[in-house]
Amino acid sequence: MALVTGKIASSSSFSLTHQPKNFQIFLNFRGKDTRLSFTSHLYNALCQQGINTFIDDKLPRGEEISAELLKTIENSTISIIIFSENYASSTWCLDELVKIVECKKNGQLVLPVFYNVDPSDVCNQKGKFEEALTQHEEKFKDNKKIQRWRDALHEAANISDWHYKHKYVFSD
């Protein structure tokens, strides 16, 4: 289990249990969609500015997110959610999102980025978001958990956003 944090153009890897608990920014994203593209560029740009940024790096995946990871979200100043095509297929992304929305209610700044997805698809759970949630419903049979994910997606998608359309074009 390793994390990468950045401070002034440097990064270091260390265990979640030995990492600082406070980050300026927590990045929430679907690794398969954006880790090697948008998210890595964003992470590097934040680090170059000296912003202490959390990004998971080879965290072991399981059914449940660790309490330490949830605490890391809670102790961050800002969360950036990078919605991408397959975002909702990740239960980890969705569980992190629920925590982020909870933290927003307690004053955390939350910034959604829509990476090649329509914000209305996220808000209304259409297209790939609908497909993923339907699969989760069949797999988990836990209506309360699925409803928390749906509510969090809806709420986060209604926050003023940055929409990545093509190369470096953002709208708000």
UniProtKB/TrEMBL annotation:
Protein's UniProt keywords contain NAD: yes
Chain ranges of the TIR domain: 21-172
One of the Pfam families matching this protein, by short name: TIR
InterPro entries: TIR_dom, Toll_tir_struct_dom_sf
Keywords, alphabetical: NAD
SUPFAM superfamilies: Toll/Interleukin receptor TIR domain
Highest rank taxon of the organism: Eukaryota
Any one biological process term the GO annotation gives: signal transduction
UniProt-recorded name of the protein: TIR domain-containing protein
Organism expressing this protein natively: Quercus rubra (Northern red oak)
Lineage summary: Eukaryota, Viridiplantae, Streptophyta, Embryophyta, Tracheophyta
